[in-house]
Amino acid sequence: MALYFASTTRLSSGAIRLEKILAASAITEDSPTHMRSKAFDAMFLECLDEVLTELLGAKVVRTVYETWFRSLSLARNDIPMHQDRFLAALEVTFGKAGNTIAKAVLRRAFTKLGWKLEEMSDFTYPNYVELMRARILERI
Questions:
Q1: Which parts of the chain have pLDDT scores under 70?
Q2: Which of 102, 106, 127 lies closest to 116, judged by CA?
Q3: How far is CA 45 from the centre of its chain?
């Protein structure tokens, strides 16, 4: 099974290597790549906020972020770059429902990017997030 984007580009699990993309571009704070990465982070956090707010309400979401920061040293703004810690925080906080929340955030992000999400058996949540980031960086 392959992952298709709305742009009709077909990607397989081995087709994109984030390391090659990052190694090929000099990323400084004022480079287009860095700015595009920051835009991705902002979009991802917006999707996360929207999904959590729809499920829990704004006050509870603030409490969740504060708890993650105090208990797990995971600041809200660090979540896009620390997906493994984010998934662990979801699991600690919501149990098995954390996976459902992660998928909802992923679906929201793909929708905002205009891409169609098709699940692949050999892809995990972090793979999809890195695939999105790499695909956005590739557009520069």
A1: 1-36, 139-140
A2: 106
A3: 8
- Give me the residue spans of the domains in the chain: 48-140
pLDDT at residue 25, rounded to an integer: 41
Q: Say if residues 11 and 131 touch (Cβ distance below 8 Å).
A: yes
The token pair at 2 is 């392959």
With beta carbons less than 8 A apart as the criterion, state whether 3 and 118 touch.
yes
The answer to whether 100 touches 54, Cβ cutoff 8 Å, is no
**What is the secondary structure of 89-109 as a DSSP string?**
HHHHHHTTHHHHHHHHHHHHH
Q: Output the pLDDT for position 113.
A: 86
What token pair was written down for 1? 């099974």
Angle, helices 125-138 vs 32-56, to 10°: value is 140
Give the residue from 133, 128, 102, 139 showing the smallest Cα distance to 18: 133
Distance, in Å, from the CA atom of 35 to the CA atom of 42, rounded to the nearest integer, reads 11
pLDDT at position 20 is: 42
What distance in Å separates the CA atoms of residue 32 and residue 21, rounded to the nearest whole number?
A: 13
DSSP lists the bridge partners of residue 11 as: 3
CB 79 within 8 A of CB 52: no
